[in-house]
């Protein structure tokens, strides 16, 4: 060694410091071992005798115990360790970055033969010059230390001796326990790479010598000129001073030094004498793996957002765990058919002249009646045509099991019936969809997704519908966006082929094969196909027959869409099974004559009517005391959307009007259904005179927290819910929780639908919880066709109890309905998953918000009650958005009054703020085929900015309550550049944000001279008197008045004179400015500054709504303690009118000055504030919830604000700025009055 024979304590302090720095560089990896030896020898050269003909850094030491015996386990630290510790005492920085305790802990862990997984850089694929093949399950420990230097010089001779010794032993693994477990991590020191044993190893014989081998290996290193650049991405542990038996590495001689070998990711031993930083740099240059740029800017919500503390008063479920509810057993009737096609064949043969369907025209008159005989014969022709006439016998276009689309308009149910049953007889799967009208139809692209997922290549339609489809200039059917290419087939009778006498359709017994596919739109707008099997279709018809007590020959009036949901299940399927006469009332007829279905019930003495709440409401509104209307024949009035909690009001109102026309209260039967589970529950027709089921009056606050609480406080925040009857026959129902694993709810808890985590089963609710209804029944959907992943989360739910144990092995189906089970096993539904809005961990129903908005006098503002409610994600939480269509004759003032009242109503009733409330022109929102609002498309337009609202009110301050945490001040000593770069790389927010410095501007001297607004106006009136400051436009965009600098200055002087003469105002008094938006307001503001008064701008009361707006004016006047009111003559009359006296005390108004007639003389002098800290004006604002806030603004703040706006917005005297804000407070007032 270079320092052998040198007393380090006698060296000069400068040399000791340099040696300490050199040791630190070696330990930190900033220098290689070879460089370390050279620099150290150079430093010590003047203090040691020179060794002739020997290079210190290649000096060899003979191997063997006598050369450098391995210290015993009881021995203290090695001399080299003590030596380096003495060196480290001279360096102050060494103690900061070096830890001997950590080094000794690693050594002790290795002595116990336990491996530590250490986080190191990613490994590289490099091989040692000594190793030509991978290693097999090796764990080569490194007995060297970064601080050892003596043993690192004894390389060449030690390696050669160790090679000879290791070839004498056939034992590949000495002490097998050193292997440990392999890992794929970059920080692992053990990897498995299998390879057959080498031939020379299998021939080695002789006893092992672990002690001698350990002694040799403890002081050997691979020669630096014999190895490739080393890799330190994997490390092992050692115990300094202990002897360890080390197994040899396969493919390497026993004599090679295991102490100097380490594993890379490929299990290749390499030299360990290399810097970690250098190795990391090599890995980066070799295989750079940078994360995507977006990952550098991911905010951690938990670190940024201020998490609200849980409210201890939040209601929690307290009931017991719910018990699954069973429906009554499904009865067995002897004459029930084995399949639905068999029922049609039976009625077509035995009851051929019995009416099956009556269709109405647009005027409400019957146009044709389809008998069961005609339905059977036409369906038979279509089935034969589909299977035999669309292709050749060797290559048919359709085969049993193929999917076909049914495209028929809502006013042609007869053609749809024939097509649907023709597909069933041909054993092809019908997929009913809506008729596309244009390429830009709402949801048209999602319908294309449905057809693609179902593999539809052929569409059935009528001749009239085909002619109405949009076409290209060449006459071909337009290729709709997102749709697969379809072959269109017309199913009119004249195009069908009569089957041969020997051909009969195959009608098997109902099985699990898919019968038809019904489309369903999710909350996000995705359209999926729910597959219903043949046995499910038949069982559902049987359950409906038993629950509704259908009989042969009855008459049913169907107002619903016959292509899906209740309209299909009752009006097309169950009616054929029971030979019911269905009268279909198209949607177009309902728009022209809302009473048409009531008239059909009266004329045909119908026993059952199938309607929605909207049909009840329209019929009630169109009723005009018709004496010839009699509804006594009805035994069931099925309300298909009875699951809507607000349907109870329509049912009650309809009953009140038509009870005098024979309608019995017990015939109203609301029901609940979903596309996945079909009919969930339905109220059975009651007995005449029996008491009606009780209703639940629930607290909306409790519902928002997911629990059932009877409303006892505020009547405005109560929700009255009617039951939807009992569970369907043969079904089993549960209520499961929405968030986390699906568990059964308590009896007062509301469970919601959630995606089931793979590691958590669904849990049942308690008896006071609201939850999602899940159903087990043979009469339900089986899957989302072509979407197995989504199917598993919906159709294969197995609820578990509170302990996590499954309640059974039977899978349940999610219905998407939120509700609970009440007394008598009655089912109550309070909403749907699709309309669920979760804001700040509270749940709100979109239907509830729509009902609240409609209750705020929408007749003057909202067009036909068309309102859409949805949520958007803003700052890690959902925010509520309401979009409504505005009436064409509604004024802007009326619209904003309505929007303000809606904000207050929702805040008061639901305790939630709105993010945005927008009004769009009438008939501009996307529509569904039956005229409703397409909510998902509306949301997409909102996010894309393509709604084009005519009035909009954004209120983020009322709903964004999880604002960022206060920014933490960074520790001293870290520069701003380091903070910024570190935060960006870590994906965190930048430490702070600040605007530009105002600095020096060109007219700095003028700013000092005219630092007050009044002085600035006087200066501009002198230097640029004709420069136009303001142009006031009317509603048509025509200029009605202008004001130049000189005109504004002179009018302000006249206002100041009026204040001094008429008002007797003293300096510093507050003066209320009560003007409509215009130049009078601005001139009065500067007149107050000229007179030394403090102006307070107030929005004038609305002449047609003084009761609501005048108290606000009075409140601001009282709070500001105004000594005078400046206003126009018209507003002065309103303030003193009788209508105003009904709201406020008009005798206590302060002095009111009319500025329409001002004095012509100038004031004797203009007021100049003594200091910039004097008040300039008062800024009062009223929030949407009615809270009044006042802010005092000084002249200094006004000057700084105007300069800031000028610099940021680059406002020069030649710029023209359009202002569409109110001039009474905030930024609107600043831009109107100050920034000119």
From TrEMBL:
Identification of the protein by name: DMAP1-binding domain-containing protein
Bias-annotated ranges (Basic residues): 81-90
Ranges of Basic and acidic residues composition bias in the record: 91-103
Superkingdom, natural source: Eukaryota
Record-annotated membrane-spanning stretches: none
Compositionally biased residues, Polar residues: 130-146, 197-206, 223-239
Stretch list, region Disordered: 54-153, 178-268
Entry similarity comment: Belongs to the DIP2 family.
Domain DMAP1-binding: 7-130
Origin organism lineage: Eukaryota, Metazoa, Chordata, Craniata, Vertebrata
Residue spans of biased composition, Low complexity class: 178-192
Pfam families recorded: AMP-binding (PF00501), DMAP_binding (PF06464)
PANTHER family (alphabetical): DISCO-INTERACTING PROTEIN 2 DIP2 -RELATED, DISCO-INTERACTING PROTEIN 2 HOMOLOG B-A
Originating organism: Alosa alosa
Bias type Pro residues, positions: 62-74
SMART domains xrefs: DMAP_binding
